[in-house]
Amino acid sequence: MTNAGASESEPTDEAVVEAASDAAEGVVLSRYKQSEVTDLDVTVRFEDGILEVDVYLNAPDDPDPEAVVREAVEAAETAVDELFGR
Fold it and tell me: Where are the alpha helices (DSSP H) in 1-86?
């Protein structure tokens, strides 16, 4: 279940990307009905300890899509911080 040589206190890059992506998508889908979202693209990269989260959202103006995107990115960052126990 864990990679040989990997510490349980250090999540894999794959686990980091998955947690961040799930958190970001969760925020968006908690704010809009799935049928209201015309397009959603969450791109997460985690390389050399640096997390990059990009969220593209095409959805109705209520709630404000830009605010939802900011919340989604923040949720992704929080999820990763929690993985690392921060």
Answer: 13-31, 65-83
